[in-house]
């Protein structure tokens, strides 16, 4: 599985000293653990499939399917060129939702833990509760990964990291999805043990 | 030698009048201060719904509000109300008719006139001794009626005199002097200004204004008519007809039904005469029980026997109509009990409680369109329901959150659909289809005794249905209200009747049918649950009657009446995410703080690291069309590529390549985006195109024009190119307070940052090098001042104030600010002409000569424009009305709107003569555009012109409010109070009385207020100071000989005026002691708009400018060589052009760097440039 680099940093190296030293291997690709992308096109295809999966959750794929080929291209080119405005001009449409709804259909998220074997948790989760109340990050964790949340009075054992920060558990999930999603439109959440120092 | 300042218009005992006026204004000032306006009312476009509860109390509900407000005058109890935007008529429980005129900053004033006539006598000269055959000494204008000054009385106690009688010295735009006398040979004759040897008689006009004073209270309509004529009290009343005649007359049709079943019409009701003059009786074929009048010419009444009556022949010249025709009820056994009409729709309730709808497509044929309850209740209904009974129960439980009167209970949300989405869907369903009458089907729910009915003008819709079982009170009556998407601006009339069990006597409705008592009681039983009520615990509104005649509901902006504001409703909460920082502060702040820290931790310390990858160029390509440079000009398919690269200093620059093929040879042109001076969208009905200007292209009058396949595609390109241009010029964010604003003929708004050398004395920046960027919104006029106050006026005369944002419109995403962007709409008319030629056999017909123009054409006659074929100006516009005859064309028209001429390309006049062989009339159709931009509406008064005082930056911090003057669409002069940087919209208007409607106004840097009246003459307002913002009196200034002025602009000291023929005039001889100046001096022709700034710089829009490639109409021009000692300047420097309509340079007080001209200054006469000190 290919993780975004920011996620890898949060998950594996958030406590290490900067700059982060990376070892680049040019041989013996771990074919068992990672999907081997033979070309640039394969990476692009992988990225676009993530986007499509996210939009399938958010809008039943309606938005991404209505886009033209050139829009898809612009998303990829924007990412590749590190051109936020180029990327966002298209990605903006993926972040919209109908005015009469109060959020996406489901929030595209993945929760990663270093402590388990399971690569990540991904479930269907709506941004708005049946009573109209907006779901928060805390609600999500309680539902899909209760072990990550400290009991009311208990000691905090884990950090919930997105983009290298720890948003409060009261933060509405819909807002997080709109503002802190990765370019692949997923909210990648890392649960890492609380540093002991 | 300057002459002393002197008022030219002096009243009899003039001092008294002059001193009285400021005093009354002072008292108005105090009033305004004492009663601060709600900010909501000042900024939101809103209208109100009127309703009467069971106890006869009248409430209003604003489209912007969420609370029913008790009517300000709550003395009386009413049984029936009928509202329009400006007033509300009602029948009170004493069976008298009352009218409630809403308060406004602009008074309702009416002029009374009387003429004093004199004859020359060899002994005493002109004297009061007239011949026996002569007219009265004091008469009306015709001379036939005796009219002594003290005999002119106020028509009712609701009026008061504004001032005493005084002589009108203005004679056709020229001051008469000599006491206002005009001379003639004998009495029924033409009068001249000057006395001649043969002038035997003379007359002068005395005028006096009366003012309607009973505003915001219920004014009793005096029933001084013959008591025999009006024997029985009124039973029903309906107001409508406001669309029959265009503004500013504001005529209303007020119809009433008496208890004996007779129909009465109130004569002469208009905006300036809110009470009307008298009741007149109309013969009817039977006893009428109820009547309903639509905003246009629909008038329906119900007869006691159950038939409906339709009034025919209602038109502009005959608002009373000519005859009745009877419409049989839909079912023979069940007569019609109640009707209600809109623009083109009629709703009826029959005695068996079925609701019927009829769409009227033309006068002769009535299409009946049944209301199928399954559709209405199933699809349109659940989301936007106004459930009265539910309100009873739910307002009990949720009134603390809702405050009384918010209709929508929980079951509304429970149905899973929210209001705005449903609006469109239902509108589709209900659009009356001509020629396809739907099967009429009664409401089949027996639990639901429908006895009321409502209708909207083509749009406003109500229906009734039972509430879902979830609702405890099943006897509820619900009404739904929204507007047709195509007619979103029309007023929705929605009268309800309702039934009351507690006090049946008060119920005006005839529908007092079998109301299931148990249900009603059960709902009443829930009532006491109400916890907090603004009006007291016993005061749950139980409605008896509703009138929505004055209530405009936009399909795109459904008022927040229908949602519970409890934080439960998710839509409200989502909204609050962005608007209530208190709620979101904690988590939001924390995220921002952490992100900042993370950036510092992870990036800041490594800034010195080299970039691993240098990605300097990226490209966007696409397929567009290009208007080729060579003849014959046509659209050519091209490939375009925008290459953007980042320089070493991090600055970005871009090149646009256009690749085309000509004679099978591949070629390209390119443009550096840092040279582009303007990007102008050019939308028309077929193409989505835009134009790119560079200084060279501006000089050639030949921009690069590109067209995209779709509007979205064009907007994407426009936004990207605009962003690239702004990046390369490092222009971003809000425009500076000194910015120069302009508007194109398409209503697009452009703003330019003035460079330091723009107004330099030597080598100023050529104005074709100015960079213009677009702002969202649609305006006709925009005016600014250097303290950042910017006002705009729309084509529909709506006033808008700039919010400080940028972007909007087609500029989404990064090109737009995230806040301060609001929805904006505008309405304008499209005009086409119907042409006819006379022939001896059949008279005027639509058969012209072979050489004639099209029988349906544009104004020039060159283009064919049929009613069916004419489209709105671009795809952004949508029709909101049907075609109607425009009577307000220059030259006047006859009763049917025709204008006559001897042959086609000719001047037209309003009445037929022997020599006229052709005629034409103008048809207009309203279309509407909805866009967004950094603008907020300044309600409620519509404006024709506005001017803000220009100030130099040195004057900043002076503390006092910013002077802003305006002309209303009716021609009233208004002065805005409370305008400041923090509150650019100001607080209220102060009305400044004039003797005629005004057209244009401008205030100079030293509070010199100049204005142009409708007769083409200019006026100067004396003694305007910060402490006396409205000044004291007008000084009449005649226009240049044989010219009618249309616009005036005042800078620091310079006064420029523009006449109807495009001549620009400079006012000569203005000095501090003689601010009116002495004469007009011609400066230039070919001008259609002028703006004079605080440096006395002069900018105009020239009507025609020839370039090397083509001609451009509407070009921005800068007057060169304007110096303190040469304020008229020397020549023109031509800038951006091709469809520019308006410019305001009045915010730019950035004086260029001084050079050699500095030493000349002391030698210049101080009066020539020194400010007129206040």
TrEMBL record, chain A:
Residues 41-96 form the Autophagy protein ATG5 alpha-helical bundle region domain. It is found in: Cytoplasm; Preautophagosomal structure membrane. One of its GO terms (biological process) is autophagy of mitochondrion. It holds the Pfam family ATG5_UblB. Residues 1-26 form the Autophagy protein ATG5 UblA domain. One of its GO terms (molecular function) is Atg8-family ligase activity. GO terms for cellular component: Atg12-Atg5-Atg16 complex; autophagosome; mitochondria-associated endoplasmic reticulum membrane contact site; phagophore; phagophore assembly site membrane. It is a peripheral membrane protein. Its main location: cytoplasm. Residues 106-191 form the Autophagy protein ATG5 UblB domain. Residues 1-17 form the signal peptide. InterPro entries: Atg5 (IPR007239), ATG5_HBR (IPR048940), Atg5_HR (IPR042526), ATG5_UblA (IPR048939), Atg5_UblA_dom_sf (IPR042527), ATG5_UblB (IPR048318). Keywords: Autophagy, Cytoplasm, Isopeptide bond, Membrane, Signal, Ubl conjugation. Forms a conjugate with ATG12. Part of the minor complex composed of 4 sets of ATG12-ATG5 and ATG16L1 (400 kDa); this complex interacts with ATG3 leading to disruption of ATG7 interaction and promotion of ATG8-like proteins lipidation. Forms an 800-kDa complex composed of ATG12-ATG5 and ATG16L2. The ATG12-ATG5 conjugate interacts with RAB33A; this interaction is bridged by ATG16L1 and promotes ATG12-ATG5-ATG16L1 complex recruitment to phagophores. Interacts with TECPR1; the interaction is direct and does not take place when ATG16L1 is associated with the ATG5-ATG12 conjugate. Belongs to the ATG5 family. Involved in autophagic vesicle formation. This is Autophagy protein 5. The gene is ATG5.
